[in-house]
Amino acid sequence: MVALLSSLAFLLPLVSAVEIGVDKTSCTAAKRFSPLNMARLEVMDLAAVAAEKAHTLAQTNIAAAWLAGNLVDEQIFRTYQIFQTFFPLDGHGQQLTQASIQTVAIGKLTSILLDKFINFHNNLNNPAFGPGTIQIWCGDRHIEQRQVGTDANGQPILRYFDTDKVPEVEMHHTFQKCADLPTTNAYAFNGGSDIIVCDYAWRRKKQDLYVISGFRRNPQSIQAGDSLDDYSLITGTLAHELFHTYMGFHNDHQVVFNGQMVGAYGTWGVMELAQQAPANTLDNCESIMLAAIAMFLDGWRWHEGYATAL
């Protein structure tokens, strides 16, 4: 990576040449325009901080320092712990006394994640990657169902159409709206350029806030024992959806729970994924998003999935 793109200077601040807009018509009435507007900018800060910390960890020989009896910088050590939790080397959280065999792997893991954030930045600054704009909607009322014909039994064939587009765009036949997915926070379509934030996402607030920069500036407002999930909020929702496409077409992996396959969502889900299928963690949007939030809120330790004091 050419001198790490001038030592990551381009990431601070990480800004987007691709316009990310919030639809005023659907969001203003519900008083959701302002928090979404703040969250779309906060995602850029989140990505920049996570990239910087991944870079610093990749440049630090944790194993050599530990085995030599030297102290490791507290911030770097916390990033190391986050990687051990969310992107484990063997799925079992090896102890630092075994770190001598982990040095190469840690460097590789952090470099992979760093490349993902650089890819995210480059794609958002490359209009050729997509249509050039990302539109965030509050709900999906503009997606309407129409009859497009009849089947062999004379029954109507119904399809959803995105009425915001000119001409209108027919959705895939498997498309489902927020009302069909009552526990879905958000979804993206049209190559990731349209993000629908469902009503369900708005249950996610902490101390009446939907964004997390205030908790980074004032870590005292975080309580010991708070779940990392508590701070995902609307910022986490947008980051998850943007990472799906603009970070390089990532997935939502599943884990086994009570004999059933369920989505690896939330802190429990991503930590379980790290145990069941560690190779999938760096391809799982939720894992990357929650790890980024844990690195962003660096006034606390988060490697156990909840806030513990420094």
Summarize this structure as a short list of keywords or feature phrases.
four-stranded mixed β-sheet, Collagenase (Catalytic Domain), disordered N terminus, 310 residues, alpha/beta, MetalloPept_cat_dom_sf
Descriptive overview:
The protein is globular. It has a four-stranded mixed β-sheet. It has helices at residues 3-7, 24-28, 33-58, 62-67, 74-86, 103-124, 213-217, 233-246, 266-276, 285-296, and strands spanning 19-22, 133-138, 143-150, 156-162, 169-170, 186-189, 194-197, 254-257, 260-263. Helix content is 38%, strand content 14%. It is built from ten helices and nine strands. The longest helix is centred in the N-terminal third of the chain and has 26 residues, at 33-58. A hairpin with a 2-residue loop joins strand 8 and strand 9. Residues 1-7 and 90-104 have low confidence and may be disordered. It has a single domain (3-138, 178-296), classed as 3-Layer(aba) Sandwich (Collagenase (Catalytic Domain)), CATH 3.40.390.10. Residues 1-17 form the signal peptide. Keywords: Signal. One of its GO terms (molecular function) is metallopeptidase activity.
